[in-house]
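Morning run. Coffee first, then this:
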Amino acid sequence: MRSAADHESFVRENAAPTPAPLVPELSLYLATELTPLWEATEAWLEREQLPPPYWAFCWPGSAALARLVLDQPSLVEGRRVLDFAAGCGVAALAAASSGARRVLAAEIDPFASAATRVNAALNGLQVETTDEDLVGRPLPEFDLILAGDVCYEKPMAAAVTGWLEQLARRGAEVLLADPGRAYPPRRGLIERASYTVPTLLELEDHESKETRVFQLLP
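And here it is:
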């Protein structure tokens, strides 16, 4: 079994520090080309069941959340923040740089958690990570939940949004960013912001995605 240090080395060796799309204040280890990284990942996959390298791209939902947090630091200042399905950790980094008391980036992919740690070190920020599946937990220890781009697959979207609605009813502020995926919630939302986020044609169907940030109502 590979160690956390091995995961972090893989991130550094297969991605390069790059200004984050929409959030140039932050640098991230991102893929400069999709194909070589995917081939490197497939070589590991044959041996160790490595998931696809989604961590190596700054997805539009997370970028939109990061932009909102940097523009409105009062959203996170002094608060305990969870970045759920954090990917490369850009929203978590934005929260840490904007004065959050505690930031946890949650990702079930250990390489995504490694990418968040590497990116935090790159930016001189403190962010905790976890590989545990938090869906269904009450999480009273967090005041604000950030969830970017979690509505692209129907069963996952139903489970995650139902859980996020429960967290909102229990008193957490929940912000959900969606770039027009197929399965976002259709009710109980207030739009907080909207951004045009640059994207890669290798990953998306356009060079940018209109991405909206919603607050889930209790």
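The chain has a mean pLDDT of 89. Good start to the day.
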